[in-house]
Specification:
Number of strands: 0
Number of helices: 4
Number of domains: 1
Radius of gyration: 16 Å
Helix content: over 70%
Largest sheet: none
Length: 90
């Protein structure tokens, strides 16, 4: 087990999730449902499963597609999303 990878992955995901739509939705559910433990468990399970999907798809892609192509497509995707957000279309 590589603790440096664990720490860097934790930091990236933790800071990426702060203030995003997922966290805001979770806050809304916790305040409206008055069941914070249930909301936490549901949210934690959803994030765990979506992370598992990301890892499985990423690992499979890495075996089938060169890393340079993955980086270029991911970078291009982030640029497109950024432009759409700036234009108010997301």
């Amino acid at each position: 087990m590589d603790w440096k990878i664990i720490a860097s992955t934790f930091a990236v995901v933790f800071f990426a999730e702060l203030g995003d739509k997922t966290q805001l939705s979770t806050m809304m559910l916790a305040s409206s449902k008055k069941a914070p433990v249930s909301v936490f468990l549901g949210s934690a399970l959803a994030l765990t499963l979506s992370s598992l999907l990301g890892v499985l798809v990423g690992d499979t892609l890495y075996k089938l597609v060169p890393a340079q192509v993955i980086r270029a497509v991911a970078g291009g995707g982030f640029l497109v999303i950024g432009v759409l957000i700036l234009l108010g279309r997301m």
